[in-house]
Amino acid sequence: MPRRRGRAQYQHRAEWQNVMFSDESCFNLCYNDGRTRVRLYRGERNLRAFIVKRHSGQTLSVIVWGVNVDNMRSRLLRIQGNLNSNRYIREVSEPEVLLLFHNYDGYGYSGSLEYDQHGGDPHAESDYDRQGYNNIPDMVKRFLVYFRNCISEGLIFEIQNLYESSFPKLTEQFFDKKPWPEVSDVAALVDNDAVFLILYKELYYRHIYARVTGCPTVDQRFQSFYNYCDLFNHILKYRLDPIALELPDQWLWELVDEFVYQFQSFAQYRARVQKKTPEELEKLHNNNKVWNVLCVLNVLHSLVERSKIKRQLEVYASGGDPDSVAGEFGRHSLYKMLGYFSLVGLLRVHSLLGDYYQAIKVLENIELNKKSQYSHVPACQISTSYYVGFAYMMMRRYSDAIRTFSSILLYIQRTKQLFQSRTYQNDQINKQTDQMYHLLAICLVLHPQCIDESIHQVLREKNFHEKMYKMQYGELSEFESCFVYACPKFLSPAPPPADAPPDYDYVKEAIKYQTRVFMDEVKQQKMLPIIRSYLKLYTTLPLSKLATFMGQGENSNWNLNDGMKALIIHLLCFKHKMKNVVWTKGTSGLEGKFQSGSELDFYIDHQMIHIADTKVAHRYGDFFIRKILKFEDLNRKLHMIKI
Amino acid sequence: MAEAMRSAVAQMLTGIERYNPENVPTLESYVDYQSRENTYDLEANLAVLKLYQFNPHLYNTNITCQILLKALTNFPHTDFVLCKCLLNEKHLAEPQIAHIMFLADILESCDFQEFWTRVHSVPDLCSQITGFHDSIRKFVCHVVGITFQTVNRSVLAQLLGGVDDQTLKHWVNKYGWREEENDMIFIANQDENIKTKNITEKIDFESAAAIMAASR
Asked: What is the ipTM of this complex?
């Protein structure tokens, strides 16, 4: 039983009643669980004769799960197949634990869970604002107490369940468009547990940012920033010992992600000079350390350094054991994962500032194409690929961008059902997926290349072909609108100057600029699709003939000689732009070799263009497999029919 | 010397130290050094631009110009775009920077003849970068090397910036090209690299095994 930590502090029976014990256990029909069972009588310990050994090999097993609270227990739940955290929440925690919660109340149990009758600490009671406190629904009070207990005991599965499931549910039920209870009201419920209150505040502000209309105010932005400072200070304060806190990886990811998001949101807020009162402007001016880009970078770098995650990844990539270099902190799951997620946070911050080189560099030793022990948080995977693919696109490494986007889009296609149930993650994932399809479409227009058939299918179904057609025919506005929709929300790191002209749009400044850089690139390439469309029709084509084709529709001043000159320039440009660095191997995403990965290539010999195209044979495999499965299914259904 | 400086600067750019504005003078003199000694360190240069981005009052046009020109010398790599992304609209409006942007644009478009004309019209701008012209010629040779199997001698001389016979021979030898009759220069046998690809579907046993087992 793994969940025993910290139980000693529950000394009184009344307090024990607050504690839920849950565990799952696997019973194998043959002993093949890798354990050796020993029956222990006094004095017989470790005697070889009493060790029972059984055969190894395939065996059947039953997994069951149950929970005990005080004098109640849940149903015994049978779990089929592999139990992962998503299934755990969907099938175990949500139906069972929440049911138990409700029943708890139904049994007329009003002992120590009701804090109104708990007179243990009279000071605490006078401390809080009774009015606000009384407004907290009982169910929420119980949730908070239980939540805090789980965190202080390190019940990781239970915390994950409360975080991913109960918290959003209660939010929907009680705090849809309004904030969660004030921290001062919650403090008394949880014995002023400092760590819990920091974590609670993080959720509190995150909810305000996401759901409460008219918020966050400038004060809330400041407070949230200070709370992040408290949190990271708490985590990093001891140089020698890691703190004893464990949080689910999903939460840690969202924590880092939210931290970067709020930084981004603040920079945009600060840039909107027009709508601010002089007091607000002054306040921003006087507190220029708050949400300062250096603070944010400092936090992320500190987490990276403390966890030694870079070294760990290096060792992991070369096949070693990352724990061997992780040190005291890096072995601790909280630090390790915060370190990893901070790398992704840095990727995002660098991308938002237009520093694509650093963006890719920070992920050195992470092999994006491979599944690893760090890659189990889907939202993190998706976000990483989005920013990496985008950076590649801006670096004109279209092959790498296309590879990055298609592999993550395939992954999303395959695992969609898994996170579809978690609605609160869904919006962001859907948005980012759609953005990646746009970016992929752009890359495929600039650098036509074979991609996975099922991704092609989606591009067809979602009508990207019309957009791609327009871009191919040189419609710059289509490029621009796709880019603006799909790009990250770029920031200027420095606040607008104090003497800023009030009519200038600082919010859009950075986006406009990055769009311009991208559009400059597109304009340099604008002749390439036209040339490509001609070349596709031939295997050899004289330069003069192509020059004549290109000259069609030009005015009467056009002559072959100038046309040939212009054509050579375009052809050189074609070759230059289509030969790019492509990652081939190794752990640095920046490295690679020059390759021409696009489907059409050519060379010029004397006055003749020799063209090499890529021919893709029709694929039958998928088609037949689908048909076979369909047939099987039909057959099965026919057998089921009883006449 | 160059290696020692490179590693000293790399040390300076690890972790959060990278953003320390006190590093600016050192890094700026390192940029000067690169221009003078014809060495190149993209990462250090990007760090300078980043420091300018974070501390607009430290911005220095001359250094920025040098960094951009150095990035031009590293074509066909996309260093120039990386540097450009760290600037802003206001910088691009400065006449010197605008001029370099224009040079980069025609170089990216491979309009080499136009590029040389423009470069020669502002000799001061590029003369501060040692070896600027030859670096650009390297890029020209790269593009020529991947485009042509044979190319007319005079066309090549023009692409390289109207070079004389002696210089042309130097570049032809350097890249192992060969002068042929009729004023042609043989670049390389491109059939070997550039040929029609056929992608056919390969189905291995493993991927079909599951379905075969299921439909027994």
From this structure: 0.88
